[in-house]
Design brief:
The chain is mostly helical. The chain is 34% helix and 7% strand.
Length: 151
């Protein structure tokens, strides 16, 4: 009778270890997905902040001729008029790549017209964008999310 039951506990232990491994992998996948979704939401906020700052810089150009900032750092302090303004409080990092380097969209005059992430990852979010970001629905990568101001 004892001979037929040898190894049964070992099989149960192996089954439990396999089940625990599968559950652990699923939990890690869910955590990674949530982190990417959080970074994606942060990218939308940061990109919108740059968009607004570039728009303010452009629209507040003194005189008749409007100009884009030459570089992103110019958004930190706009001293072109008598009153200094700060369209952007600080330069933000790209939440997707965690890099300070952004893709730059240049205007015809050479100024900075917009930014985009340099990540070639596929976004989770594909719908539910505000009207001014509706083109993001057809994006294949985060590089296709262009935050650019065109008057």
């Amino acid at each position: 009778m004892g001979r037929n039951q040898e190894g049964f506990s070992y099989v149960i232990a192996l089954f439990l270890v396999a089940a625990l491994a599968i559950l652990s992998v699923r939990a890690m996948e869910n955590t990674a997905s949530k982190e990417q979704r959080d970074r994606e939401a942060e990218l939308l906020i940061v990109g919108q902040a740059y968009y607004v700052a570039i728009r303010l810089y452009y629209e507040n150009s003194p005189g008749v001729v409007k100009a884009y900032p030459k570089e992103l750092v110019n958004l930190l302090e706009d001293a072109r008029a008598t009153k200094i303004t700060r369209p952007l409080r600080r330069l933000y990092r790209d939440p997707i790549t965690s890099s300070a380097e952004w893709g730059i969209i240049r205007a015809p005059d050479g100024g900075v017209m917009g930014i985009y992430s340099r990540s070639n990852r596929k976004p989770f979010k594909v719908a539910g964008f505000p009207i001014d970001m509706s083109s993001f629905s057809s994006a294949n990568t985060y590089q296709d999310w262009k935050f650019s101001y065109q008057p």
